[in-house]
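Reopening this one. Same input as before:
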Amino acid sequence: GLDSLKLAYEARKLMNEDSCFKCLACLNELNRYERKHKALFIIASTILPGSGSIANGNILKGFNSLIINAAVVSSIYILAKHNLYINAVLWGIGFIPKFYFGNILLTDKLFDEKEDKEKNKLAKKCEFAINKIWTDYPVKWK
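Same output, byte for byte:
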């Protein structure tokens, strides 16, 4: 809930005063961390369903998305091929938004989850550094 500029300023001020506070650079690192190329993951998942999930490291979810989307498209094709146009349209209306667009939303969610995991790793590292400062420089209450 702190102002990021104020936090960066205070951390830099402490680092300049005493070199042992260099470990506070992790606060700036944590504050600025952002995974890059989210749009590319979503575009990949739009072009080939499941590829964005696979690129995010969830291979099983990615292959499941690919298989389910392929099954829906092939089912619609088979229905249309057998002149069951109303059924094909209903399948398309019913399943394409759920599975195709759901796949894109899943990629977005997985990307954000992976970003949060990386931020948590940085936060743990930073917490360790701050705890070390607390033990090295204990606060004495009057």
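So the earlier flakiness isn't reproducible anymore. For the record, DSSP finds six helices and no strands in the chain.
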